[in-house]
Design goal:
252 residues; alpha/beta; Rossmann fold; nine-stranded mixed β-sheet; two-stranded antiparallel ribbon; 28% helix; globular
């Protein structure tokens, strides 16, 4: 069984984003970039399934700028077998929208014929949480989103999902798409020997034009602004005063 895992290059989660002075977006100049944390969890799960004998190959794919090759190398160092980079832009500030990403991955899935696609539930830069669902719809596959546990039994994937009321367990027939939630696993650190081995693993590059897919943006960012600063707290002398202050704030 082959597993396909899409990964995205985003601002490192330890970095505090800065808004551009003109408010047109986030400033990415000289900012540390890394793999989207949810995608890292997806890669880890795919590698674990391969180590357990449920999969034979793990292929990772990234769509965006040329620099995303570094993100793919990280995935290869974690244990993926091959990587595909689809160069869709030369501007690091341009984000490829979910529908365009889904169309590109659909084209790659038709070429690679994976039995399972594991994707992060969302990217931490735009939080759209849409690519996985769109991709499943375009492929006509069953989907299991917000997965906290994945088990493969023959041609069926048994997935435990995180829902508002607790946990829900469903079964989907393969081929299928799963989106990874935070509690699915804890990604491993790539060891130095594996980082060196990753440099020799195949990384195929192609352009979005070769796939014949239009990635022209459908959305326009009107403005971006910093969140409002938090006001200083106050100390209260009694429960009655606390209740009064909460009522003033509209909490009660």
């Amino acid at each position: 069984m082959k597993i396909l895992v899409p990964v995205k290059r985003v601002i490192d989660y330890n970095v505090k984003p800065r808004v551009k002075s003109d408010g047109t977006g986030i400033d990415l100049a000289n900012v540390k970039m890394s793999m989207n944390p949810f995608d890292e969890i997806a890669v880890e799960e795919a590698v674990r399934l391969k180590e357990a004998g449920a999969a034979t190959e793990v292929v990772v794919v990234s769509i965006g700028v040329q620099q995303a090759a570094d993100t793919l190398r990280t995935a290869l160092a974690m244990g993926a077998d091959r990587a595909i980079l689809v160069v869709a832009s030369d501007d690091v500030h341009r984000d490829i929208e979910p529908l365009a990403v889904a169309k590109i991955i659909k084209a790659l899935a038709e070429k690679e014929q994976p039995s399972l696609i594991i994707a992060g539930k969302q990217a931490i830069d735009n939080d759209m949480n849409a690519t996985g669902q769109m991709l499943a719809a375009l492929l006509g596959w069953g989907q299991a989103t917000f997965a906290s546990k994945v088990e493969i039994a023959g041609t069926v994937a048994k997935v435990t999902r995180e829902v508002d009321g607790g946990l829900q367990t469903i079964e989907v027939k393969l081929p299928a798409l799963v989106t990874a939630d935070l509690r699915l696993n804890e990604p491993r650190y790539a060891s130095l020997p594996n980082i060196m081995k990753a440099k020799k693993k195949p990384l195929e590059e192609m352009t979005v034009a070769s796939l014949g897919i239009d990635v022209t943006p459908r959305l326009e960012v009107i403005s971006t602004r910093e969140p409002a600063g938090r006001k200083a707290g106050i100390k209260v002398a009694s429960v009655d005063e606390l209740v009064a202050k909460l009522k003033e704030a509209g909490v009660l």
